[in-house]
Amino acid sequence: MSKSILITGGAGFIGCHVVRLFVTKYSEYKIVNLDALTYAGNLENLKEVENAPNYNFEKVDIQDADALDLIFAKHQISDVIHLAAESHVDRSISDPMAFVKTNVFGTVNLLNAAKKAWVGELDQHLFYHVSTDEVYGSLHDGGFFLETTAYDPQSPYSASKAASDHFVRAYANTYKMKTVVSNCSNNYGPNHFPEKLIPLCINNIKNSKPLPVYGKGENVRDWLFVKDHARAIDTVFHRGKPGETYNIGGFNEWKNIDIVRLLCQKMDQKLGREAGSSEKLITFVQDRAGHDLRYAIDATKIQKELGWDPSLQFEEGIELTIDWYLANEEWLEHVTSGAYQQYYKELYEN
Length: 350
Ligand code: NAD
Ligand code: DAU
Hints:
The chain is of the alpha/beta class. The chain has a domain of about 210 residues: Rossmann fold. About 45% of the residues lie in helices and about 15% in strands. Helix 1 links the parallel strand 1 and strand 2. The longest helix has 22 residues. It starts with a strand and ends with a helix. Bound molecules: nicotinamide-adenine-dinucleotide (NAD) and 2'deoxy-thymidine-5'-diphospho-alpha-D-glucose. Nicotinamide-adenine-dinucleotide (NAD) binds next to helix 1, helix 4, strand 5 and strand 7.
């Protein structure tokens, strides 16, 4: 096979869309999905590719350096697309160390494993690090995040992602590794774990439970359909210039409260409920500590240099997303049982 690509975090939300895209689009590549299967990793996300001849799964924690060396040797890994991470800001506030261990220590382990496996031929292999717009901090006075915007992370999650980005660039500079980094805005779509705003609200509206809006709901996020992010990752992996950074975003800013209202309206229609009934579930709760006000990506560079564009309008993407959750009740039931219920109780019911 022409390439043997290690995709980390492939059982998570974005990772499963990337794995599915690469397995089906590139039958000539061997795809190795490496994932520790934390609460956020779910092999049910990969049912449609699990029997494909070019798909492989390895249950490994990126904190385990010896196990990573074995995987590089076993699969003769030629390139890495690194998505594995602790990804939820609220969890980073209650347990920052988990984010240091996976996002910082785990990323450095992975860089070391790649450096060791590719010794003498570092210029022939790509280490692609998938990161977030949150590393740039919070926008208060208008403007957009550019690739040149100074890092200013404000939460333990974004601080850990910023540190991992710095390590990747430091390995490129020091050891001449071929690396690329992309920083993306908020994703939404199928397979999104229901601790995040959009799937949490869809699940709660369905079950007529309160919709917890932090603070006044005035915070702004730029939303991108997850399959468009997967397409962007494909584009950057194949056409991105080594050493470069690419910002990825949807040109699609929404205040949280407006998204929650939109979900209420759409779901009232789909569930045959009286118009306005779900909006009564909106409950303003205590704000997230250190809550970033606004994120907004300027994605002109990837548009102009690599020819990528978001393909879906938000209204269309949100319809698809709601329909997916309503059609996949079993998936939702599986991921919201047990540990999730305990987490939800601790965060919202104390
Ligand atoms: P997710 O939480 O849904 O999935 C993370 C995956 O990583 C899970 O499958 C989990 O089991 C795995 N994982 C966690 N710790 C691990 C470890 N120590 N070893 C191996 N596997 C481990 O996350 P996501 O939303 O799909 O995000 C994927 C990546 O994209 C992350 O790096 C995140 O920072 C970045 N990102 C996310 C968004 C977003 O809106 N969700 C936006 C921009 C960037
Ligand atoms: O910007 C990219 C980032 O987007 C990614 O790097 C993160 O991994 C991803 O989780 C996401 O971070 P956010 O904190 O923006 O996403 P979340 O869905 O947690 O929250 C979106 C907004 O909604 C945020 O302003 C907080 C608010 N919110 C969230 C939840 C879970 C609420 O008002 N109520 C809630 O219950």
